[in-house]
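Standup notes, protein team

Yesterday: finished cleaning the Paenibacillus prosopidis set.
Today: PadR family transcriptional regulator structure.
Blockers: none.

Input for PadR family transcriptional regulator:
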Amino acid sequence: MLDIKKDAYAEKPHRGGNSQGVDGHRGSGKRYFGRGGVRFALLKLLEGEPMHGYQMMKALEEQSGGLYAPSAGSIYPALQMLVKSGFVVVKEEEGGKKVYKITEQGRSALILLPDGSRRAAAGDVRHSPQAAAFLNERIRRTLGLSNESFDLLRLVTRAEHEAIASKELSAKLRQLLHKQKQLIIQFLVGH
């Protein structure tokens, strides 16, 4: 069985430019994914739909806001390990393209993984403080928000994640958000 916690193929963060570190990877030399993160992220992508390797590379880059630019040298060996472990099957299409699909065993692995491995997936990565600040600033600018608006958006997102486990908290949050929505509508109408 695949030990999803050990991943020798973890990629480095992409910081732009053509600079390469001592080990030949772009960026600062810090890993974007923790151990097992690349394989977990690939399984999460395949949970949604079967994909080509290149599609997965692009999806991971998009989900990271451009911070992580995976290489074929990290993705394809990880996919081979997932196939060998029975978590993924591969089918060759006309033209030689390979399509990867998660198996039931792969779906089970996603459910059984410890919480620390789940955080290593794209979209739920614990960045270094510098990488998190860079990513947040990039997202804020892309959305065209002020710092205050972006901070509010992050707080609302966090509150929704915490309230999901409780009907009582969820109801309180809905009330709070409804009140704030009404205040913002009044502001827009009244200016």
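Follow-up from PR in the comments: The chain is about 55% helix and 5% strand.
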